[in-house]
Amino acid sequence: MKKIGILFGQENTFPWALVERINDMKVDGITAEAASIDVVQQAKSTEYAVIIDRISQDVPFYRAFLKNAAIGGTAVINNPFWFSADEKFFNNALAEKIGVPVPKTVLLPSNKRPDDTDEKSFRNLKFPADWNYIYDYIGFPAYMKPFSGGGWKSVYRLENSEDLFNKHQETGQLVMMLQEEIQFKEYFRCYCLGQKYVHIMQYEPRNPHHLRYVKDGPPIEQKLLDTIHDYTIKLNHWLGYDFNTVEFAVRDGIPYAIDFCNPAPDADLNSVGQDNFDWVVEHAAKMAVERAQSVKEGSMNLSWGNFVKVQL
What we know:
Layout lengths: L1 E6 L5 H13 L4 E5 L15 E4 L6 H12 L3 E3 L2 H6 L2 H11 L6 E4 L22 H8 L3 E5 L9 E3 L2 H8 L7 E5 L5 E8 L3 E6 L19 H18 L3 E9 L2 E6 L9 H4 L1 H21 L11 H4 L3
Parallel strand pairs: 1-2, 1-3, 3-4
Antiparallel strand pairs: 5-8, 6-7, 6-8, 9-10, 9-11, 11-12
């Protein structure tokens, strides 16, 4: 019997619905449950062929457990080693290299020095930076956001250089990135599961969280939908994520990838709505079963993106 474990925290609707759907599929030799963790012994295999990770980004103990599970042959979704290494600024650089449009972006040093550092720790950093070049390249209005991490935390819309310096004072030790504003006509959030199943959702990020998923929006040209679908697949092939969301802002008919480092994306019924919820539960179940069926005992069963397998 191959077991699929769902590792989760405060969310309720998605994990239990996923467990129920997998078991309802009645696939011979496969069962699903909420993952159970007792003693975590180094190099000892877990009882799970597959673990779907929904919480380790917030719980370091779980991340260490998942890496140990992966060494023992568990197919962890998403790959905990890549999940630990990935961040948004790198993702933008990779997208640019593979031909997916992204906003112009620069990295900013943290406003406050990291603990246990002093001015000598930054002798390699030019001071002052060439701010005029940055202003000309990015333009205003602009957005400042953490270079890593999820959610809309510490995200600022900036009107001018004075606004930038004032807001930067609030960011402490966070490393931020400055990004051009894409004034969009349409916006989309896309689930991508198993690097092949794509669900495109009209989305309005300026609305309150529970009203962001647009119901009965205006019709969208098929050509644009096809481009968004292809970009979503391409990004996840290169990143290696099996459960991710990609967000696109459309300016002058061109979809710009805005945020595509969401390896534990929102899948709650109360925010995504019934239709989107039904889709993600169904396709997460299919993906999990397919992965369990392909697991080879004694092997590393993680997904790795093209970035670590193919030379750019």
